[in-house]
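Exercise 3.2. Students should predict the tertiary structure of the chain below and write it as structure tokens, then compare their answer with the key that follows.

Predict this chain's 3D structure.
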Amino acid sequence: MARKRAFDKDKALDFAMEIFWKKGYATTSISDLTEVMGIQRPSLYSAFGDKEELFESALRRYNNQHASFIRKKLQTYTSVKVAFLNLFEGVIEEEYSRDTSKGCFCINTIVELAPHDEKFEVLTREHQMYLTVIFQEKLLMGVESGEIDKDIDVKAVAHSLVVTLVGITVLLKSGINRLLIDNAVNLTLSLIK
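Answer key:
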């Protein structure tokens, strides 16, 4: 008879995500993981596989949660322009309110692993593409409602919004001047007309 797991796998994965997010993949040790997850090495390997598999599971979980958060945030507002403004302002405020910036777990992975590991390059690119689709959906709602010009290149604007979101998230980790970020966001949002 198989032994029942004595821990909540989702909570353990959330704890792993947090430590990977804080320290990065390379500097997070198995000891760090077992300590924060509250499990022993055999349980970690049995439930999640090796460190790389655990990281992949954490990244997939983050990407799903992040995309869901973005979609909900955009759906909160009827106005497309207000929705995107509030999305960007929320990201900026969250980063400036922290003592230390963690940035975005997916973007951190783009910087740390994607250039050297095809699997993580694909996973992070897929997430960016999914965000682009979410942005396109919201922009199309604006076109259909008449809030946005029907001649707008929805796909190109959605890509630009994602690129700006990625860029400001990276720059926010470095403590960049808030005015520069605000100017970049305002200029990008001016594409939605």
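Discussion points: The chain has a mean pLDDT of 93. The CA atoms of residues 6 and 131 lie 36 Å apart.
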